[in-house]
Amino acid sequence: MTIDPRRHIDNILNDVDKIKSLASKKPKEDDKLKEVCQEFEAIFINQLFKQMRNAAKSINTTPLIDGGFAEEVFKDMLYEEYSKITAKNNSIGIADIVYNYLKGK
């Protein structure tokens, strides 16, 4: 019985490739989890901004210039982007807290 070293080398290389693919999945999952945590923080911050805007409206009942519906849509989109930027920069840190909690740290 002869041993073919190429076959064993191929088997070893296949096993190494499998290990690399499994190892590469872990960071991708961590990155996805971190991204979801940042999105959660952005949603939370956006809700804070909406409540602050509503409170400001109740204080200032007669604005000098009323932009109507278009202004409301613009402000909603603007503050949504503000909240995404704030979450991405870890300004508040909610995403890190949620990420560490979900990772069990």
Describe the overall structure.
- This protein has 105 residues and is mainly α.
- It has one domain (29-103).
- It is 82% helix and 0% strand.
- It contains three helices and no strands.
How many helices? The count is: 3
> What is the oligomer described by this structure?
single chain
By secondary-structure content and strand pairing, the structural class works out as mainly alpha
Question: Unreliable runs, pLDDT <50, ≥5 residues?
Answer: none
Radius of gyration: 25 Å
Order of helices and strands: HHH
| Biggest sheet layout | none
Distance between the termini: 53 Å
| Counted beta strands | 0
Mean pLDDT: 80
The total number of structural domains is 1
Beta-strand portion reads under 5%
Helix fraction bin: over 70%
General shape: elongated
